[in-house]
């Protein structure tokens, strides 16, 4: 365990030195805060945008607080995923290229410990960043629209954080399997997109698909009844994450350096 | 919307400050880096001109691994 903590400390230091611990949460907070604010000022923004004939009347119904929160989650589902995939993509492939992996694994450390320390650090980063963004969105929604019940918000946070962690784990896996970081990010985002789309097209058949998670998270704000079984999808996501760790550890064992 | 200017400020100021913090850190990191991927002046322009994503782009692609 103490060895694992050393590895975790190394990952943490890497995240501080590369400023990930700073900019990822800041970006999440910015987007979380901006979504309610732009929604609130949308009529003003449209009115000032020009190109409208004199006397045109724009009437946009003010969305409810719940709709704003659901919309914010949608925002995190695109930009948030992109940011996470891009910041995780080099986790293993870059260290393999630079030879750090080989140096670390000279020590008596299991491959699984090496991968899982990375995974835990990534998960901590995601939880912190998304908590910041989610709180900012929650705060601004409460200030500009109306408060949202914290119980459903907490469940939505956990479900969506699991989805973000799931996609982050996929990125980590492809980072271990593939040579290029960009390809790893692209593969993970592609799979995430396919899962989310298929889950929204066949919600009944794919109730246990992790792709249900973002939908289930927004459904917490709309009507909790429609998301009756997000727990199956959550369990499936956790299982896949465990499998991803095992496969990534195997991939690192098989090819610790580029030359080998 | 019926908001006074000071109310507007209290809403928008935190967002502006966070964005400013992001931009300034990116600029400092860029200035202190020994080498960046691509010319430094290009990154300074990207950080300053591309809203929010400029700093993100620099942090992801601009830094050279030590």
Commentary on this structure:
The complex is a heterodimer of chains A (260) and B (66). Chain A is mainly alpha-helical and 260 residues long. Chain A has one domain. Chain A is built from ten helices and no strands. Chain A is elongated, with a radius of gyration of 20 Å. The mean pLDDT of chain A is 90. By secondary structure, chain B is mostly helical. Chain B has one domain. In chain B, helix 1 (5-32) runs antiparallel to helix 2 (40-49), helix 1 runs parallel beside helix 3 and helix 2 (40-49) packs antiparallel against helix 3 (53-62). The interface between A and B is medium-sized, with 25 and 20 residues. Chain A: The chain crosses the membrane at residues 21-42, 76-94, 115-142, 154-174, 181-202, 231-252. Chain A: This is ABC transporter permease.
């Amino acid at each position: 365990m103490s060895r694992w903590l050393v590895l975790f400390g190394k990952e943490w230091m890497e995240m501080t030195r590369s400023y990930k611990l700073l900019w990822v949460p800041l970006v999440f907070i910015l987007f979380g805060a901006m979504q309610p604010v732009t929604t609130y000022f949308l009529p003003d923004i449209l009115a000032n945008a020009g190109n409208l004939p004199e006397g045109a009347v724009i009437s946009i119904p003010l969305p409810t607080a719940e709709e704003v929160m659901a919309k914010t989650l949608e925002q995190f589902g695109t930009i948030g995923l992109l940011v996470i995939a891009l910041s995780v993509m080099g986790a293993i492939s870059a260290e393999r290229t630079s030879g750090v992996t080989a140096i670390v694994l000279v020590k008596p450390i299991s491959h699984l410990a090496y991968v899982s320390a990375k995974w835990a650090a990534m998960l901590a980063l995601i939880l912190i960043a998304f908590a910041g963004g989610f709180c900012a969105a929650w705060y601004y929604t409460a200030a500009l629209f109306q408060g949202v019940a914290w119980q459903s918000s907490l469940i939505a946070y956990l479900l969506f954080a699991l989805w973000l962690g799931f996609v982050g784990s996929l990125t980590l896996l492809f980072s271990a399997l593939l040579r290029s970081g960009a390809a790893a990010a692209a593969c993970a985002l592609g799979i995430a997109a396919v899962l989310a789309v298929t889950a929204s097209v066949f919600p009944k058949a794919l109730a246990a698909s992790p792709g249900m998670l973002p939908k289930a998270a927004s459904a917490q704000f709309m009507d909790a009844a429609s998301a009756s079984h997000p727990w199956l999808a959550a369990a499936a996501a956790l299982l896949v994450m465990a499998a991803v760790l095992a496969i990534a550890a195997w991939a690192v064992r098989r090819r610790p350096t580029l030359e080998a | 919307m019926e908001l006074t200017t000071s109310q507007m400020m209290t809403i928008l100021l935190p967002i502006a400050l966070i964005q400013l913090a992001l931009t300034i850190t990116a600029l400092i990191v860029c200035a202190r880096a020994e080498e960046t991927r691509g010319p430094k002046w290009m990154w300074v322009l990207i950080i300053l001109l591309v809203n929010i994503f400029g700093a993100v782009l620099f942090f992801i692609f601009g830094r050279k691994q030590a």
